[in-house]
Amino acid sequence: MRCYKCNATLSENDFCNRCGTDVKIYKKIIKSSEAYYNLGLEKAKNRDLSGAVECLKRSVKFNKHNTNARNLLGLVYFEMGEAVSALSQWVISLNLQPEKNIADKYLDQVQRNPGRLETINQTIKKYNQTVQYATQESEDLAIIQMKKVLNLYPNMVKGHQLLALLYMKTGDYEKALKPIMKALAIDHNNTLSLQYYNEIQAEIERIRKENGTADRSGKNRFPQNRVNLAYVSVPETSNQGSNSDVVIPQTKYKESSGNGGFIVLNVILGIAIGVALFWFLILPSKLSQQKIEFEDKLAEKNVSIDNSATVITNLQDTITELEADCVQLKKTIAGLEEENEALPIYETLVGGVELYTSGKYLPAYELLKTINLAEVEGIVSDENFTSAYNGIMALNNVQVALIYYEDAYNNYYSKKEYDTAAEKLLLAYALNPNHVDTVYFIARAYDLSPTSGSDAQAKPYYQEVIDKFPDSDRVNNAKSYLSKIK
Fold first, then answer.
1. In this predicted model, which residue has the larger pLDDT, 287 or 29?
2. What is d(CA 101, CA 80) in angstroms, rounded to the nearest whole number?
3. 3 state SS for the chain
4. Could you read off the pLDDT of 116-167 as tens digits, one per residue?
5. Mean local confidence (pLDDT), 440-458
6. CA–CA separation, 117 vs 394, rounded Å?
7. N or C: which end of the chain has fewer CB within 10 A?
8. pLDDT > 90? residue 331
9. Mean pLDDT in the chain?
10. pLDDT higher for 5 or 413?
11. pLDDT value of residue 215
């Protein structure tokens, strides 16, 4: 552990031997970060991924330079199908520790596969489309779209949860059980998955009970496993009547008719003796044994609960103490953060990524535009930053261009506002010039505009459709309209 002020190696003392800075609270913060990292690592090994995320978030909150915790947080996110969040953590980690950082390897593996970023983009796009279908109560379309998402990204826990929820909404609880089991296989202790699982199981049990009650024949009313087969005998056909409720198995031994009363008395006496033996000898023994077993199990549970309560109490005390101590370090930490000019730039990039993954494409575009790569070259020397920025901008620009296009399409068709449509389509074109419909409708908007000379502005866009998209369905129309412009 090194001093945060002079970077000297710290000893066991509560002050730095070189500069004399009080590092007692600082040591507690670093140790707490490591404790949460170890706890998160243990949870990740046991596939409690959501629990691991919470612990690792706390770890990097206490010490943002804990690259081991940040890299592991990225891996856990990636395992849960949240690739963009994983990439964000690795980019920040590499900025904080450019040398000897395994995050460089993780990012390189993603960047070497050009199809993976496209898969991530398609996954996010289809997931957002699924949510839109669900909010519109188009459950069938949402289920189809969600299945496509999970085919692209089978580890997406949120995707399995959403698919299960859609099945639950349609009343198909048997099908809902399958995706929620897959979600629990990925993240064992996810609270939302467990909640869905309990609700599904309860509903399935209720439906099965209702189905059993509805069977009036009585064949399925009592389960077969309640019958003790050791006391069932199959009689031969007799002449005592087929509707008798008591079946008497055949036997070779016969009593004389004169001793019938004696036989009945013996049977009653035997039953009474059997009941007495069971009640006074066998039952107390069994009850005593069960009581001992129950008390042993209860004692074990109490010990476990006491231990857990002690751990939780200690941890809460530590958190309370650290939060109080952190107040005293705010000025020092603020001063250190001011020295790192690159951190706000990375935070802006991460903020843009988070907005993009939330489907807020326009706010993401406005935020990411504030980063000027030419100006930050002297501040951020990491090549991965430029690569990550260009990647997220390319993905987001496609979505923003689509928003502009759809808005312009409304002006074009519904309102016949061709000049306004042309302006918005040009914005979409600037962000994504490879969308044939955008180019085509720019030409059409200019062609139909009442503004004088606008038809001449349509000519280069008609020609671009013909030259750049020769296989498009728009080519024939573009040629026809172009020939009519003088």
1. 29
2. 22
3. CECCCCCCECCCCCECCCCCCECHHHHHHHHHHHHHHHHHHHHHHCCCHHHHHHHHHHHHHHCCCCHHHHHHHHHHHHHCCCHHHHHHHHHHHHHHCCCCCCHHHHHHHHHCCHHHHHHHHHHHHHHHHHHHHHHCCCHHHHHHHHHHHHHHCCCCHHHHHHHHHHHHHHCCHHHHHHHHHHHHHHCCCCHHHHHHHHHHHHHHHHHHHHHHHCCCCCCCCCCHHHCCHHHCCCCCCCCCCCCCCCCCCCCCCCCCHHHHHHHHHHHHHHHHHHHHHHHHHHHHHHHHHHHHHHHHHHHHHHHHHHHHHHHHHHHHHHHHHHHHHHHHCHHHHHHHHHHCCHHHHHHHHHHHHHHHHCCCHHHHHHHHCCCCHHHHCCCCCCHHHHHHHHHHHHHHHHHHHHHHHHHHHHHHHCCCCHHHHHHHHHHHHHHCCCCHHHHHHHHHHHHHCCCCCHHHHHHHHHHHHHHHCCCCCCHHHHHHHHHHCC
4. 777 887 888 888 888 888 888 888 888 988 898 898 888 899 999 999 999 9
5. 86
6. 11
7. C
8. no
9. 76
10. 413
11. 39
Q: What is the mean pLDDT of residues 237-265?
A: 40
pLDDT of amino acid 317 = 60
Position 235 pLDDT exceeds 60: no
How far is 259 from 249, CA to CA, in rounded Å? Answer: 20
Instruction: Say how far apart CA 393 and CA 397 lie, in whole Å.
Output: 6
What confidence tier does 10 reach under pLDDT thresholds 50, 70, 90?
Answer: confident
Angle between helices 67-79 and 103-111 (to 10 degrees): 40
Are 75 and 86 within 8 A, CB to CB? yes
* pLDDT of 249 higher than 70: no
| Whole-angstrom distance, CA of residue 50 vs CA of residue 129 | 25
CA nearest neighbour of 87 among 119, 134, 63? 119
| φ and ψ of 9, to 5 deg | -70, 130
Helix/strand/coil (H/E/C) assignment for every residue in 170-223: HCCHHHHHHHHHHHHHHCCCCHHHHHHHHHHHHHHHHHHHHHHHCCCCCCCCCC
Contact 80, 187 (CB under 8 A): yes
Residue 371 makes CB contacts below 8 A (sequence gap 6+) with 345, 348, 349, 389
Domains of the chain, CATH where assigned: 24-112 (1.25.40.10), 117-211 (1.25.40.10), 342-484 (1.25.40.10)
For residue 195, the one-letter residue type is Q
- Looking at residue 20, its amino acid is G
Query: What does each C-alpha distance from 418 to 14, 323, 428 come to in angstroms?
Result: 73, 59, 15
Reported as a pLDDT band with limits 50, 70 and 90, residue 312 is: low
